[in-house]
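Q: Is it fine to ask for two folds in a single conversation?
A: Yes, each is treated on its own. Send the first.
Q: Here.
A: Result:
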Amino acid sequence: MTPALESVHPVLMSSDVTASIAFYGLLGFRATFQDQPVAPSYAALTRDAVTLHLQWHADAQRSGDHDRPVYRFVCSQVDDLYEEFLIRGGTRENDPAASPFAKPADTPWGTREFHLRDPDGNGLQFYRSL
């Protein structure tokens, strides 16, 4: 039998894990693990079948020439999810620093998607195939 991958749990850099937990709460995630009840430096967050991990990193570790990955989430109801995030305060309409795909749109590469960044600049993209 060939070994099978079951899931992936990305670890996102965070300058303030408590603030990141609050932000991801606006996106409907809930903390399922914290290494400390107050001022955690590591946490796991879950929404539906998705789990993200957050780990504290010093400013020097998050700046400079480090490549910042973007996390893409498959979602069948992209427009509804965007509206949910707007209502919860997890994204804002008309953010001047936002991506060209800050609002749901059809892309030239055959998806419908929208993008946002968390407080630490981690890219989050929510999409479905057309």
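Q: Second one now.
A: Result:
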Amino acid sequence: MNLTIDYMKVSQLDEVFEIEKSCFVTPWSEESLRKELSENAVAVYLTALDGEKVIGYAGMWHVVNEGHITNIAVHEDYRRRGIGTAIMNRLMSEAKEREMIGITLEVRISNLNAQRMYTKLGFRPEGFRKSYYDDTREDAVIMWKYFTPDGHYYG
């Protein structure tokens, strides 16, 4: 595998949307993803590529001095190969370059694999959102990774 992580391009939206549909019970629409990429000034979207093939992606909003992970997904054929970690590391580098104080995300309480990955990356649970997910009314764990004032990561 020839893994690269780069900024998402509009030309990649068809592949990104296919991954989105395969990974989530209630996927974002292709139009929503397109608007994120072309109209949302605070959005940062990345793709993971194996050569030219999109195998994963992630998005983050840069709101004031914080990052909020909006979504992350890896194609099922490429899971458990460190791609999610690579994408997250790149998002954390982006956050550091933009002088954010930390990054937050919500993850389904049942998604233990994702929680383990985030914990290994230094994220810590900070609270819960009751019935956060509209499709199942499942709770979300709120996780944060804070950065030190000198730009180094905790954890």
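Q: Anything structural to flag on that second result?
A: Two points. The CA atoms of residues 68 and 142 lie 11 Å apart. Strands lie at 3-7, 43-50, 53-63, 66-74, 102-108, 124-129, 140-146.
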